[in-house]
Write a structure and sequence with these properties.
This protein is α+β, with helices and mostly antiparallel strands and 283 residues long.
């Protein structure tokens, strides 16, 4: 996979957003080899679909060890190069009492006995994943809080390999650490709220992730901070990437509702995704 220039990447994302505003559809993804068959599916109108990017293989990402780990020697928390962080959306607090657990490379949020399962495949650096989290994913908050749905997250990190850097790996490691701290839903929302404007910007350093964590009540502490700084969950990051690859996922975001792939043009708007959920018997 050739690494595209930052300006070209930003241009493609801007084109997607502009097209969506014009026709009400934002259906694309970070998918393989610059094709348009990313996990979100194709747009109804081909003119609305920008090029997309994705993993070439399950190989470790740039800036990571063979197990998918962030390199050691991470910067101090709140270092001078870390930007200021934004607070997570208020809606994430509605999931504060919802359990989160880990099995293999998957993080599950919600009642394990919930009648419906939504699988979400994401990479923290993927701009379309942010669009999903700010759009369609908001329709999941109440059903999860009510115990009707559980979400199974597979956090990939292929964009580090495609774009250079280690931000996806660092973010995945920190997200795993937030499960132990009991604050995964809020921190997950905060990570996407603080995604850099440029996909090529390798902004998710340990220092910045700790600043983001500082915006989540009750998250920061000695164990969490050490895990973020030292890459404690480096092995798990590799397991998550393996799970992504083994599931045959070709782009992010990919969303499955009770095993059925959600339509790409529904992912980026809350009302449209709520319709998909209702069609699956979830409301």
């Amino acid at each position: 996979m050739a690494v595209h220039k930052a300006g070209r990447k930003a241009g493609r994302v801007a084109t997607a957003v502009a097209a969506a505003a014009l026709i009400g559809v934002a259906a694309s993804a970070c998918g393989p080899d610059g094709g348009d068959n990313g996990g979100a599916g194709k747009a109804k109108s081909s003119s609305a679909a920008p090029e997309s990017r994705g993993p070439e293989s399950g190989a470790p990402e740039s800036g990571a060890s063979e197990s998918g780990a962030p390199e050691s020697g991470a910067p101090e928390a709140g270092g001078p190069d870390a930007p200021e962080a934004k607070a997570p959306p208020a809606a994430s607090e509605r999931l504060a009492k919802v359990p989160a657990s880990v099995k293999g490379g998957v993080i599950t949020v919600g009642d394990p006995k919930a009648g419906h399962t939504v699988k979400v495949y994401e990479d923290s650096r993927c701009p379309f994943c942010k669009k999903f989290e700010e759009g369609g994913a908001q329709a999941l908050v109440q059903p999860v809080a009510d115990g009707k749905v559980r979400i199974e997250y597979t956090i990939a990190s292929f964009l580090d390999k495609n774009l250079g850097g280690s931000g996806s790996v660092n973010a995945a490691n920190a997200l795993r650490a937030s499960v132990e701290a009991g604050r995964f839903p809020q921190f997950h929302a905060a990570v996407f709220a603080n995604q850099p404007d440029e996909e090529s910007d390798d902004a998710y350093t340990p220092a910045f992730l700790l600043k983001i964590a500082g915006k989540v009540d009750g998250l920061r502490g000695a164990a969490f901070d050490k895990a973020v700084t030292n890459g404690t969950y480096e092995k798990w990051v590799g397991e998550a990437m393996t799970a992504f690859t083994d599931d045959g996922i070709q782009g992010t975001p990919t969303v499955l509702i009770d095993g059925k792939k959600a339509a790409g043009n529904s992912l980026y708007e809350q009302g449209a995704f709520a319709e998909e959920l209702r069609a699956a018997g979830i409301s």
